[in-house]
Design a protein that fits this description.
With 455 residues, the chain is α/β, with parallel strands linked by helices. The protein has two domains: 236 residues, Rossmann fold; 196 residues, Rossmann fold, CATH 3.40.50. The protein contains 20 helices and 14 strands. The strands form two sheets. Strands 6-5-4-3-1-2-14-13 form an eight-stranded mixed beta sheet, sandwiched between helices. It has a six-stranded parallel beta sheet with strand order 9-8-7-10-11-12, with helices on both faces. Helix 14 links the parallel strand 11 and strand 12. Helix 1 packs across helix 20. The model has no long low-confidence stretch (mean pLDDT 94).
């Protein structure tokens, strides 16, 4: 009897940012016969000892992954990884220190990338191991391509009907304005409060981010007053505290602070997007929404070139107001597509042609995972993985009850509010309609926050 295909294990940390793209990737895998377990990363980790052997799709490979990756390998799971934060990143030496663990990367079977720049950064890391690197692109970008961007049209129309004409401001200050203040690593470094030796780059980057954070706070009241006929929608980073922005909104009735839903329909519906060094400027450039990179303070070592290259750059509040006014009055729009495309292509693969999701599943097929699961571990490894899974689960469950801990259930629920099987089926149905695929896929609840997607 033929062996069953590998189980695809699809963890999601930030639901509003990752879920739609990972459902798309799950659909492509399930279409080819793979059973996919998708849901909260924390809750997936609780269940890895009871999941049939397969491939764990990791979104990062930091030091905090060392223990979990070892457990996954002991249980017989292979790891395919990409870096969800690898599109906008610091210089190589800093990126390697912040985002890449040699211990974790030794346990990865395959690496996929956003594009060639991300691949080059992986190749230059001395501790990356022997995992082959594939320039597949990321499924988050698939959702912005012409074939799929209409997926968000219903939400975009609801947003427009509810708020009318609006200007979107996106912030990404989680490392200096975290949901839990004690987890704001760069703020601690800038203020000399981070435990242990503080790297000069971290302290400098922290001061830079804090300066921009303060400039955004000063800019907002002036901005809201300058555009009284527009709703100004501010979307903080998923891990960012809303309190600072909500305090400002109390005095400005046209300012709305929200993290409702995926950012993509908001980008589609917005007249203009204002941010500083944020992925949403790249996403708006792909969609064709005008983007403005507000740079009240500039330091080349700390800023991201790609967001400068795909957006209209402004350096003062006066210049910001003038540029946004010209955009909302239809005097100017986004940068020319050829200029945007030239800036995007070194960083993003699969802007056209086969979807990134298809390219990633191609790698699974080529590695033989459709013909069967990875090799069974030894009995001792299996027992060790089982024991460590249960020990770790007890520790994490305890930490979920600890106020202010990074595993606290309140922070988990902030980043992963949950989704129903019916909502997941509706998402799959819209993908099916747009692509004329995925017609026979089903969704079944596995346990709290976890679902099977299968053929």
């Amino acid at each position: 009897m033929a062996a069953p295909p590998s189980t695809i294990i699809m963890p999601v940390e930030n639901q509003v940012r990752e879920m739609d793209a990972k459902i798309l990737l799950s659909c492509v895998a399930a279409e080819r016969g793979y059973p996919v377990l998708i849901g909260s990363r924390a809750y997936i980790h609780f269940k890895t000892a009871s999941v049939p052997r397969g491939v764990y799709m990791a979104k990062s490979m930091k030091t905090r992954s060392d223990r979990m990756f070892k457990i996954l390998n002991q249980l017989g799971h292979d790891i395919l990884a990409w870096d969800e934060e690898g599109l906008l990143r610091e210089p190589d030496a800093i990126y390697h220190r912040w985002r890449l663990s040699a211990v974790a990367m030794q346990r990865i079977a395959r690496l996929t990338t956003w594009g060639e720049d991300n691949a080059r950064a992986f190749r230059s890391f001395s501790g990356r191991g022997n995992a082959p690197i594939e320039n597949t692109g990321n499924p988050r970008i698939d959702l912005l391509r012409p074939e799929l961007r209409e997926f968000y049209r219903p939400e975009a129309e609801i947003i427009l009907e509810r708020y009318g004409k609006f200007i979107l401001i996106n912030t990404n200050f989680s490392k200096v304005n975290h949901y839990y203040e004690q987890l704001g690593e760069l703020k601690q470094a800038a203020e000399g409060k981070k435990p242990g030796k503080i790297d000069p780059y971290d302290a400098g980057k922290g001061r830079h981010k804090l300066a921009i954070f303060e400039h955004f706070q000063k800019m907002l009241p002036v901005f809201c007053a300058a555009f009284p006929d527009y709703t100004v929608v501010l979307r903080p980073h998923p891990s960012e505290s809303h309190q600072t922005w909500e305090d400002i909104a109390k005095s400005h009735p046209n300012l709305l602070v929200t993290n409702e839903g995926n950012v993509h329909p908001w980008l589609m519906a917005a007249k203009v997007v204002v941010a500083n060094g944020c992925t949403t400027l790249v996403e708006s450039a792909i969609l064709g929404t005008a983007g403005v990179n507000f740079e009240p303070v500039t330091v080349d070592d700390y800023d991201f070139p790609i967001t400068r290259d795909v957006s209209r750059r402004v350096f003062s509040v006066e210049e910001l107001l003038e540029t946004v006014r010209a955009i909302v009055d239809d005097k100017i729009g986004p940068l020319d597509w050829d200029a945007r495309k030239a800036a995007l292509e070194p960083h993003i693969s699969a802007l056209e042609g086969r979807l990134a999701a298809d390219r990633i599943v191609d790698i699974l097929d080529e590695a033989g995972y459709r013909e069967g699961p990875p090799p069974a571990p030894s009995a001792s490894d299996r027992f060790s993985g089982w024991y460590q899974t249960h020990l770790r689960t007890i520790e994490k469950r305890i930490n979920m009850r600890r106020p202010g801990h990074r595993n606290n259930i309140t922070l988990h629920d902030h980043r992963y509010p949950g989704i129903s099987a019916e909502e997941m089926l509706a998402i799959i149905g819209r993908f099916s309609q747009l692509l004329d695929r995925f017609h026979d896929l089903k969704v079944k609840k596995h346990s709290q926050h976890l679902y099977w997607i299968y053929k």
